[in-house]
């Protein structure tokens, strides 16, 4: 009897062991498959569908040619002829990216931003790599990071700061990194990549892009550090690098918001903010080997519109609470641009000028719709209408043309003659009752003058509904 029970028990144990071993084998198989996928990452990058998506993305982004002069339109026939040769050279590790073409873009506050423009072929390969690397690293990124990430925006970042300020974090540390994209440490970056990317061929490919060099004034400059702005891979690599900072601050319980290399750290007191400024400097310069700008990195009050600025926004407070504003520098820059678009000496048709104003303001409002700028836009609307009347008056040129056009627009013969021959300046005439009665608001709008205050209100309602 005992012998039978023993045997029965042994059979059960055997079956359980077989089931556990089967599970272990399946888990091992899954791990093996995952490792195979990781080690075949280069093949995923060079997959036909992935490369086609990359080409379409580069084509839609347009962009200038690199040092070889090849345009996006010229790339397709070249790829059709040399595709297999190109892919095989990448697989064999013999592919050598071209140096990037240096282009300097003036900054609004002085200085220049150095862009590095890769060749179109290099951009396609970079884009293909970014499309496969993004899903690997995206789940690892901090919730505090908003730049160059899907379904994340500058507007979300400033709203998050507003929420923190409402919670009592009234002091901010503005962290400014000197030439961040040009100072990324290559070895540190590659070591971070190796934690998740097990295909050595992909690491070597990225290393080649980092070391490809820069062509300046016909001379090749070696790149021992940095990831030049301008390539599709650069924003992702920049996020991967600074994710180390995000995770460190998060582990300490620090409230931080980052958009690419624009960083804001929040605190409840000035003393705490000053301590955070020191600890940020220690980590960024000591661990990540970056350089903080001592003049621009500072502690400021979050509700100080003249001092606090983040991505063109600032914050204000009223009886309803903390709200988002457009920073005065952003408003000044936009008005300067509108003034340039409506300058009287460009010799263009008035409808063409109004179309350019619309294109600019559509893009501007698409970014700043979040800000409380209703009164500002109302003032701009009146000012721009007068600018357009001034522009039209200048185009009429001769007194007889002005008299004839004023008569056509319903002005009496005496007044048309009087104002058509006036010696008053353009701006003075543009604000007169005669021009307001002839070149009416309705006539301007029917000619194409953009009703941007109404557009702003519709964008605000759409956002509030979301």
List the helices and strands and how they pair.
Elements: H1 2-39, H2 41-45, H3 48-61, H4 72-91, E1 100-106, E2 112-117, H5 120-137, H6 154-166, E3 171-176, H7 186-194, H8 200-210, E4 214-216, E5 219-221, H9 234-251, E6 255-259, E7 262-267, H10 270-287, E8 298-301, E9 313-318, E10 321-326, H11 328-341, H12 350-368, H13 374-396, H14 399-408, H15 413-420, H16 426-430, H17 433-438, H18 441-446, H19 452-465
Parallel strand pairs: 1-4
Antiparallel strand pairs: 1-2, 3-7, 3-8, 4-5, 6-7, 9-10
What features would you describe in this structure?
- With about 475 residues, this protein is an alpha+beta fold.
- Helix content is about 60%, strand content about 10%.
- It is built from 19 helices and ten strands.
- Strands 2-1-4-5 form a four-stranded mixed β-sheet, with no helix packed on it. Strands 6-7-3-8 form a four-stranded antiparallel β-sheet, sandwiched between helices. Strands 9-10 form a two-stranded antiparallel ribbon.
- Strand 4 (about 215) and strand 5 (about 220) form a beta hairpin.
- It is globular and about 85 Å long.
- The N and C termini lie far apart (about 75 Å).
Stretches where pLDDT is under 50 for at least 5 consecutive residues are 1-22, 24-30
Report the count of strand segments.
Answer: 10
Quote the beta fraction: 5-15%
| Spatial arrangement of strands, main beta sheet | 2-1-4-5
**N- to C-terminal separation?**
73 Å
Biggest pleated sheet: 4 strands, mixed
Structural class: alpha+beta
Output the number of helix runs: 19
Helical proportion?
55-70%
Kindly report the average pLDDT value.
88
Could you say which overall geometry the principal axes of the C-alpha atoms support?
globular
State the order of secondary-structure elements, H for helix, E for strand. Answer: HHHHEEHHEHHEEHEEHEEEHHHHHHHHH
Radius of gyration: 30 Å
């Amino acid at each position: 009897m005992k012998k039978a029970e023993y045997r029965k028990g042994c059979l059960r144990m055997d079956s359980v062991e077989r089931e556990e071993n089967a599970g272990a084998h399946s888990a091992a198989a899954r791990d093996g498959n995952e490792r195979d996928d990781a080690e075949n990452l280069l093949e995923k990058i060079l997959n036909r569908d992935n490369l086609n998506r990359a080409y379409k993305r580069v084509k839609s982004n347009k962009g200038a040619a690199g040092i070889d002069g090849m345009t996006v339109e010229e790339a397709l026939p070249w790829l059709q002829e040399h595709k297999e040769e190109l892919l095989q050279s990448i697989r064999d590790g013999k592919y050598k990216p071209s140096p990037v073409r240096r282009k300097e873009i003036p900054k609004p506050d002085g200085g220049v931003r150095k862009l590095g423009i890769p060749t179109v072929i290099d951009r396609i390969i970079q884009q293909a790599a970014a499309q496969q690397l993004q899903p690997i690293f995206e789940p690892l990124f901090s919730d505090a990071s908003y730049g160059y990430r899907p379904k994340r925006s500058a507007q979300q970042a400033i709203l998050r700061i507003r929420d923190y300020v409402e919670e009592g974090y009234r002091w901010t540390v503005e962290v400014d990194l000197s030439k961040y994209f040009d100072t990324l440490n290559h070895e540190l970056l590659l070591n971070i990549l190796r934690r998740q990317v097990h295909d050595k061929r992909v690491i070597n490919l990225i290393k080649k892009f980092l070391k490809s060099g820069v062509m300046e004034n016909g001379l090749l400059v070696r790149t021992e550090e940095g990831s030049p702005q301008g390539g599709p891979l650069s924003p992702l690599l920049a996020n991967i690098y600074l994710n180390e900072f995000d995770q460190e601050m998060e582990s300490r319980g620090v409230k931080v918001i980052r958009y690419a290399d624009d960083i804001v750290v929040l605190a409840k007191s000035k003393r705490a903010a000053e301590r955070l400024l020191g600890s940020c400097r220690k980590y960024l310069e000591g661990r990540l080997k970056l350089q903080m700008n001592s003049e621009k990195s500072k502690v400021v009050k979050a509700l100080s519109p003249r001092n606090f600025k983040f991505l063109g926004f600032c914050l204000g407070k009223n009886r309803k609470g903390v709200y988002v504003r457009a920073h005065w520098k952003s408003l000044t820059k936009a008005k300067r641009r509108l003034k340039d678009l409506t300058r009287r000496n460009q010799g263009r048709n008035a409808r063409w000028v109004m179309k350019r104003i619309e294109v600019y303001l559509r893009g501007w409002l698409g970014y700043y719709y979040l800000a409380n700028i209703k009164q500002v836009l109302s003032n701009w609307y009146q000012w721009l209408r007068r600018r357009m009347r001034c522009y039209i008056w200048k185009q009429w040129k001769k007194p007889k043309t002005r008299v004839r056009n004023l008569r056509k627009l319903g002005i009496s013969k005496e007044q048309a003659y009087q104002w058509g021959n006036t010696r008053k300046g353009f701006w003075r005439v543009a604000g007169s009752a005669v021009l307001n009665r002839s070149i009416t608001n309705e006539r301007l709008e029917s000619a194409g003058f953009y009703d941007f205050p109404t557009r702003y209100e519709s964008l605000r309602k759409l956002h509030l509904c979301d």
